[in-house]
Amino acid sequence: MFNLFFKKERLVEKLIYGYLKALKLSQENFSNALNACLLSSAYCENFDFFIKQTHKFESKADDIIEEINNLMYGKALLPESRGDIMTLLAEMDKIPNSFDQILHIIQTQKLHLPEFLIADLKELLRISLESCDLITHQVTALFKKTSGIRSLAGTIDTNESHCDHWERKIITQLFESDIAPFEKLQVKELIVFIGNISDQADNISRLVNIIHMKRRV
User: Fold this and answer.
1) Which residues fall within 8 angstroms of residue 109, CB to CB, at 6 or more apart?
2) Does the pLDDT value for residue 106 go beyond 50?
3) Does the pLDDT of residue 185 top 80, yes or no?
4) Is 190 exposed, middle or buried (0-12, 13-18, 19+ CB in 10 A)?
5) Coil, strand, or helix at residue 163?
6) Which range, of 19-23, 42-46, 183-187, 202-206, averages the lowest pLDDT?
7) Any idea of the CA torsion for 172, 173, 175, 177, to the nearest 10 degrees?
8) Which CA distances in Å does 100 have to 27, 33, 53, 113, 193?
9) Going by CATH, does the domain composed of 2-216 fall within 3.40.630.10?
């Protein structure tokens, strides 16, 4: 019985690493879509391809979560650990969902950003995706029981504050411009969705830190 429990626990851990890989691949295609297409002055012919790839790995991540949840219901971990891990995965899954949603907003609304916003938006995007990378390191450290979780949490929290700054700056510039009011609202929606990525990463980081502290008690 103990050996079976141990094998299930190791399988859960392996699937979580698989989830992190799918998340990373979804992130890479999302980044490619924005940097190569939206942030250039013209619509990129590969944009639809990047959207499909982003959605492909977002769906893969969903499938892995479903597999993990099925194992959880089969009592692969202790009850308190099951709750923590399921909550953590639910929070993490908001990030690839955001990637998918942002790209579909751009695709369906045929959005093109005004040139004067591009440099600042690139910085907002850079910091947001850096936080996603740090989340992967933090979750890996949690399961491998290595150090650095609190330090990573501090950096992610700082990034979230920086993203708030860039988001406010970009929206202020947007509404001080003379572009059409409806276009302002379209672009603002997109900026807010991109800004939410760092908020989601910060929420995940705080949850990881709580789980880490509970394990030390």
Assistant:
1) 186
2) yes
3) yes
4) middle
5) helix
6) 42-46
7) 160
8) 10, 11, 10, 18, 11
9) no
Domain layout of the chain by residue ranges? 2-216
Q: Is residue 131 within 8 Å of 198, Cβ to Cβ?
A: yes
Structure confidence by residue, pLDDT tens digits, 77-102: 555 577 788 899 999 999 999 999 99
Structure tokens at 93: 């899954």
The CB-based long-range contact list for 167-176 (8 Å cut-off, 24+ gap) reads 167/124, 167/191, 167/192, 167/194, 167/195, 169/120, 170/117, 170/120, 170/121, 170/124, 173/116, 173/117, 173/120, 174/114, 174/117
Sign of the alpha-carbon dihedral angle for 86, 88, 194, 168: positive
Closest of 20, 50, 25 to residue 35, by C-alpha = 50
**Looking at the whole model, is its pTM more than 0.70?**
yes
